From TrEMBL:
Protein name: ABC transporter ATP-binding protein
Transmembrane segments: none
PROSITE patterns: ABC_TRANSPORTER_1, ABC_TRANSPORTER_2
GO molecular function: ATP binding
Domain ABC transporter: 4-242
Organism: Ollibium composti
Keywords: ATP-binding, Cell membrane, Membrane, Nucleotide-binding, Translocase, Transport
Keyword Translocase: yes
Amino acid sequence: MPRINLRGVDKSYGSNSANAVANLNLEIGDGEFMCLLGPSGCGKTTTLRMIAGLEHLTNGEIQVGARVVDSVGQGVFIPPEKRQMGLVFQSYALWPHMTIERNTDFGLRLRNTPKAEREQRVTDVMKTLGIEKYRDRYPSQLSGGQQQRVALARMLAVNPEVLLLDEPLSNLDAALRLEMRAELKRLHNEFKTTIVFVTHDQWEAMTLATTIAVMSEGHLQQVGSPNDIYDRPANRFVAQFVGSPPINIVELRDGATSKLGKIASEYFATRHAELSGIGSVGIRPESIRIAGPDTPVPQGALGGKAEITGVLPTGGSWIVELSLANEKLFMTTHQSPEIKTGDRIDFFVKPKALHVFDAQGNRLADADKLLGAAKVH
């Protein structure tokens, strides 16, 4: 399977409009499952459509394997039908008057694949996706999840070098989305196809991807494994976009007037005075701990006193709302909390769990090294 390289890619829809995609440099590895993740309007679908050949570049170059498929500088543009890519949209786009078998072999018929080979490939892919028993039915007779499997089968039957998926699970209910995520993961492991998957759903990206590219307002923010994106967000945007409940952000600029800001400022001033340029600190909800008789606040940890203002069960876990002088802090726990609304508690966060950003919102690498080595006892 080919490697995909996007170099200096820009896309603008008019001289007076901001670039939908700006100076994008991205490499998608051979056999990789890459998720383009970001909010609506960030440029992820535009990027996918440029890879597919459905959008022309304003500047830059796209190379698939050894072949340049789009280059403004070289004047090269290979049309979509010659790029050996499969594209699955949010809508299933099935032919309503054709049976499931005919929908699945549609691309093979266009390529004049011999009948015996065509039938074998269709049978194999339908078995893999569990839709062989529906081969004589029509799309209207299938559920949404089954129709989405047919759309995937149609693309996989032609054995594309690259599979491009544009939010294909958005129209499914929660149970079917979960089922189809597992199906996509299994298909990737089995076929080893290079997959580029567009989604705004962070959990979809976290559970499916081998690599995630986070985008915002046309700009690439970070590329990394799901663990990298979550555990070491490159900036505040990535930290706040990925995670549910979202990360707690403590502002330290402008004198840190909030109670939590003062606690954090004092902590860094006394414990890690060598750090400078801190603009804000991020605390993941699951990193917060409540101290008790047997678990006092460890020396060296960031901690303070708070009031419990809410205990919210979510099924298997709990979200606990803490209040510090009307400032909210959210924590999560997978153990039934022995607390109730109105309790006064001590909380703490270990140094290595703190995400430190500068005034521009970029991660402070110096803080990672220092806090990672800090001792608590």
